[in-house]
Amino acid sequence: MPTTHPPAEPAIHVAGLEKSYKEVEVLRGVDFDVARGSIFALLGSNGAGKTTVVNILSTLLAADAGAAAVNGWDVAAHAAEVRASISLTGQFAAVDEVLTGRENLLLVARLRHVEGPGSVADALLERFALAEAGARKVSTYSGGMRRRLDIAMSLIGDPPVIFLDEPTTGLDPEARLEVWQAVRELASNGTTVLLTTQYLDEAEQLADRIAILHHGRILVDGTLAELKQLLPPAQVEYVEKQPTLEDVFLALVGGQTAEEHQGKPVGNAHDQTKELR
Ligand SMILES: Nc1ncnc2c1ncn2[C@@H]1O[C@H](COP(=O)(O)OP(=O)(O)OP(=O)(O)O)[C@@H](O)[C@H]1O
Ligand SMILES: [Mg+2]
């Protein structure tokens, strides 16, 4: 089985994908490619078909027409090879409430026949800031902790391609930033990430390429700069820069802003709090 591919071959290739549920045409010819080691955001409103695309790419659902390949394998003809190449973090957290965080990780590590499951679990708990909570039942975790554990579980076995279906829906701003940081780290280590989101800022912050799925087709697909060029440049206006609600929230609760996460210099939380007075 070939496990390496020429770099020119995309990690994900989708061409003419179609899917209907009875008479409802959800996908009407979807095309896109995702380069290896990149973060690709599939944007769309509720019901646009994002989860349907992810489910087809992860072999949970068969397409009616078109072609899709993941890590070089056709999803219909080589489902087992596709499944060995991916992990899926679904729209709804798939962690076991009754087990502890560490036990959840151990379970997946054993299922995937990973060597040294204990040390793999401990390393992931550390990486996702869950070391202290590792021995607690997941039923006591916050939404953000569950999501981080869910993503940690999907990394076991180092799959080259990861699908994250709405990874930050329902999370508070701090937890979102933590998940974003985890996604960036994945891509910097060479993992290909396809994520779906309804949050425009999430795509803006994270994605190398963004595609908008609407009425069953990809309306646009490009880098943020390319998408911005689709509209005429805005007229220059001089306005006083007001803090965003996110700045206020994070200054008061002591988290980092998206800019700080990206290493851009910004005023510290204390200064921002003072400006509010
Ligand atoms: N098993 C199913 N049977 C019938 N219709 C379905 C089924 N699954 C999805 N649909 C319909 O297909 C459309 C696309 O659903 P899908 O879940 O892919 O959208 P989505 O973009 O992921 O939406 P959301 O943002 O709400 O998660 C919706 O109209 C949905 O009602
Ligand atoms: Mg969905």
TrEMBL record:
Keywords: Antibiotic resistance, ATP-binding, Nucleotide-binding, Transport. Its main location: membrane. Signal peptide: none annotated. It is a peripheral membrane protein. InterPro entries: AAA+_ATPase, ABC_transporter-like_ATP-bd, ABC_transporter-like_CS, ABC_transporter_ATP-binding, P-loop_NTPase. It is found in: Cell membrane. Belongs to the ABC transporter superfamily. This is ABC transporter ATP-binding protein. It comes from Sinomonas flava.
